[in-house]
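Input structure tokens:
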């Protein structure tokens, strides 16, 4: 007997499955390809929304709640699976910050440290940077994780937790009986369950048979390049002009990312490669000695207002949505999964559910 079917095996789907399993639900997770193999794998892994003071309050609330538990999660996954997600508290250095009052207001509301520092302090933190702004924002508590390693750890953990995982199984329809969801239909046949969670990332907005009103989610392509440099060349995450540099433990540095409305086209482009490389070498000229090791792309699930849907479907009881996280799936995944599980199990929610409802008022975001 399956209590709940999760449609989608990215970070949101796997974390939701884990939360429900810990509450005693019998969970089956269906993934159209490989778990964690789409946007969750392709992301940079920064554990904060980019330019968080620009983000809707609803996104920052999820990020704050996730931040409180993320170190514990990564330690637990490492202990349980033997796979280290490589959580690093690198700190985030923003070289084009907003006015001091705006950044500090965000930090006070959400419980983070945010220091404004001058060019001399930037040089002390990151001496290889060629950009010395008059004023930068330094967020020392923020960090990163390596998404491919995190996805492998989560995939193993949910199986160890007792979640039945089926990869290579796309859902093409819902089972509906007496006005509520009764399961799903896939190429392998019907699977019955009184609860279904749609966590299909960028594919969540595609029409599914018997779904009267799909969530308004669209794919947004992001491209990243990777440089294999020497460890210690850069120690902090650097954010500048909507691009980031992320130093990994082994010396590799990720440079990203683009924001492209290309539908479901996931190919990389030479234009993006040149743009990202130019930005990287302008910020950190020493990268020019190493060259680009790899380039890839992923499709983020964007919602109309930048806020995910975490709610029961308004026209189909028993169907829950946990999708539309754009580039913040790993950043907000823990709290999103917890909130979704709370709504399903009728627990007291950690955040106001109306903020993430299918129909919400812009003023509440």
């Amino acid at each position: 007997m399956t209590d709940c079917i999760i449609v989608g095996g990215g970070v949101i789907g796997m974390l939701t499955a884990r939360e429900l399993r810990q509450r005693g639900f019998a969970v089956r997770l269906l993934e159209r390809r490989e778990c964690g193999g789409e946007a969750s794998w392709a992301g940079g892994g920064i554990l904060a929304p980019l330019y968080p003071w620009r983000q809707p309050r609803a996104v920052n609330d999820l990020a704050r709640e996730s931040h409180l538990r993320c170190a514990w999660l990564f330690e637990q996954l490492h202990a349980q699976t033997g796979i280290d997600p490589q959580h690093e508290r690198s700190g985030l250095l923003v070289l084009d910050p907003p006015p001091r009052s705006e950044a500090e207001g965000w930090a006070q509301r959400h419980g983070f440290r945010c220091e404004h520092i001058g060019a001399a302090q930037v040089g002390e933190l990151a001496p290889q940077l060629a950009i010395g702004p008059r004023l930068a924002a330094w967020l020392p508590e923020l960090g990163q994780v390596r998404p491919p390693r995190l996805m492998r750890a989560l995939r193993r953990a949910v199986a160890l937790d007792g979640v039945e995982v089926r990869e290579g199984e796309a859902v093409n329809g819902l089972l509906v009986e007496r006005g509520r969801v009764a399961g799903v239909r896939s190429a392998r046949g019907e699977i019955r369950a009184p609860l279904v969670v749609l966590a299909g990332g960028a594919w969540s907005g595609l029409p599914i048979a018997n779904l009267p009103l799909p969530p308004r989610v669209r794919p947004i392509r992001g491209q990243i390049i990777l440089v294999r440099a020497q460890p210690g060349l850069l120690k902090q995450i650097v954010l500048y002009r909507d691009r980031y540099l992320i130093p990994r433990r082994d010396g590799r540095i990720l440079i990203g990312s683009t924001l492209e409305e290309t539908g479901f086209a996931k190919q990389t482009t030479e234009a993006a490669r040149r743009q990202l490389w130019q930005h990287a070498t302008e910020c950190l000229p020493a990268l020019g000695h190493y060259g680009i090791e790899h380039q890839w792309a992923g499709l983020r699930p964007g919602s109309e207002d930048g806020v995910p849907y975490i709610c029961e479907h308004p026209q189909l009881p028993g169907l829950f949505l946990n999708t539309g996280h754009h580039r913040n799936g790993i950043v907000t995944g823990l709290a999103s999964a917890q909130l979704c599980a709370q709504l399903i199990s009728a627990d007291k929610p950690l955040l106001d559910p109306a903020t993430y409802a299918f129909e919400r008022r812009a003023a509440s975001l």
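The chain has three domains: 4-66+148-216+304-364, 92-141, 218-302. The mean pLDDT is 96.
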